Amino acid sequence: MTQVPAHLRTQITDALLDLVVQVPASDEAAQTNPGARVQAIARAAARKASLLAGSLSLPPGVLGWVTVLPEMIAVWRLQAQMVADIAAVYGQHHQLRREHLLYCLFKQISAQLFRDLAVRMGERVVVRPTTQKVLQVLAQKLGMVLAGAALRKGVTRFVPLLGAVGVGAYAYYDTLQVAHNAQALFEDKNGL
After folding, report:
1. Residue 192 covered by a domain
2. 80 and 6 in contact (C-beta within 8 Å)?
3. Of 2, 125, 141, 162, which residue is 20 to 30 A from 192 by alpha carbon distance?
4. Claim: this prediction has a pTM higher than 0.85
5. What is the 3-class SS of 52-101, one letter each residue?
């Protein structure tokens, strides 16, 4: 396994904490039947994430390495907005917290990290409120996982066009997974 540089882990951890400092506002209205609107929001966000990630991964070689972290952060911001919009469609934006954002954004990457934060109660998932310290520890652990992903993404910069297509396709898929996490969390009115 590749050793992840400490400065990369620190940068990613800091980016994660900055990302969830404030829950994004949403212009979406609550829907009585939110399923179709959620799918439209998810597809639009996935297309934007794919285009953004693919474009930022076009610079070749060493120059491409510089775009890895900005690309990841930009996609996370787009996904965080999508999560806020999905919460609003379900009429739960006012209950959306930092923990919910992290859970929805990264559950598919490392469900193991979220097992203490999220509890399944019957059919619903309840994400527990956390202290700032717990949030920092979670961000550090996620930083380790995501730093490895950043290194793997960096390698794609040495195959510019094919790498950009692969990165864009993965961003599309990942954004749909984030939407699925959010929809599953917010579907149950008592899930938060």
Report:
1. no
2. no
3. 141
4. no
5. HHHHHCCCCHHHHHHCHHHHHHHHHHHHHHHHHHHHHHCCCHHHCCHHHH
